[in-house]
Amino acid sequence: MFRSLLATLALGTSLVHAALTPGYSTQTIQHGGVEREFKVYLPSNSIYTGLFLMHHGWTETMDSACSYGEIEKYAEEYGFVGVCPQGLRYANGETGWNVGTCCAGADSAGTDDVGFIRKVVEFVNAEVSIPPGRTYAGGFSNGCALSFRLACELSDVIFGVGCAGAAYDHAYSGRGVLTCNPANPRPYWSQIGSFDTFYSVTDSKAGWRKYATEVLGCGSATEVVYNQDSVTCEEHTLLGPETHQPFPSLN
């Protein structure tokens, strides 16, 4: 589901970690007074094309994100380093990311997930060589919502977002969650299924248009660039050099 984004990919903390060698490894760092985990996949090539962060959804795990994101497959195909961070588990037994108004208890706990992801990126860059400007974030559902937050608050580190199953600036309590004034506005690719029961196509399109027009300065007009096989793709065009913001809807 993230092939469109992945195809574009041609530590100041105490830590305990396994050596980064080709394949998967589980890494641990300290952040916010707690131990945080993430999985790293190094492809077999030794010159890496970029870094892609895949964030799991509400109640899910880093293992599930690596699995349905097909990180191993695409990392080997495109040569990037794949990372699947783990959200904290809270007293209710659920895992999740702090996106302002949810999820799992991360918001009420005030968990600094943005700071955690910054340290994850710093860790990887200290271990292997990642080309400048080639670090991207993605995820599903709550993990997608976190990726939107990273585009707003971590734009010095994240250079683009591609994710599924969420809506920009929208959580379970409604719209208006994020204050998004990034130092470096970044493009994003957003996808929603037409049967999504948490976020609708209407919500996701509204969020996509809001980000494209208010954050990136795109014009209000969109263009359908693909419409077949139960998939409809629209694009906003940036008012400048050939930059597009695609939005696919899957039936």
Automatic annotation (TrEMBL):
Protein keywords: Hydrolase, Signal
Molecular function GO labels: hydrolase activity
Stored InterPro entries: AB_hydrolase_fold, Plant_Biomass_Hydrol_Est
Signal peptide feature range: 1-18
UniProt KW Signal keyword: yes
Record keyword Flavoprotein present: no
Record PANTHER family: FERULOYL ESTERASE (PTHR43037:SF5), UNNAMED PRODUCT-RELATED (PTHR43037)
Name of the molecule in the record: ESTA protein
Gene name of the encoded protein: ESTA
